[in-house]
Amino acid sequence: MILVNTDYITGKNFEMIGLVRGTMIQSVHFGKDFMNGLRTLVGGELTSYTEMMNEARAMATKRMAEDAQAMGADAVINIRYASSSVTQGAAEVMAYGTAVKFI
User: Fold this and answer.
1) How far is 95 from 63, CA to CA, in rounded Å?
2) Residue pLDDT, tens place only, 36-52
3) Where residue 54 sits, what CATH number does that domain have?
């Protein structure tokens, strides 16, 4: 499965199949969330949140690709990501794009 954030793939002609998406809601352990709260007092990277978002993005991308594969797509173009806070220490990440079939 080819995944790109452009609206074309050099040298490929394709027909659009439709919108595909994948979502993931991820949280951190309460202890890590508490430690991140303390970390905000002194500044610096909140590494457990960074890891949480990286894992959520990877899983959302995987689910989007699986959605495209189920539709018979060869690639997903124009991929975008959106995120939102669900609650303290938890976030939703959505990956979405257009599934295409090569012709």
Assistant:
1) 8
2) 555 555 556 666 777 88
3) 3.30.110.70
Token digits for 84? 């939102």
Per-residue pLDDT averaged across 58-85, rounded?
96
Give the range of the structural domain holding residue 44, as residue numbers without chain letter: 2-102
64 contacts 76 by C-beta, under 8 angstroms = yes
Tell me which amino acid residue 29 is.
Answer: H
Query: Helix/strand/coil (H, E, C) string of the chain?
Result: CEECCCCCCCCCCEEEEEEEEEEEEEECCHHHHHHHHHHHHHCCCCHHHHHHHHHHHHHHHHHHHHHHHHCCCCEEEEEEEEEEEEECCEEEEEEEEEEEEEC
- pLDDT grade for 53, boundaries at 50, 70 and 90: confident
**Into how many domains does the chain fold?**
1
Entry field: residues in the chain: 103
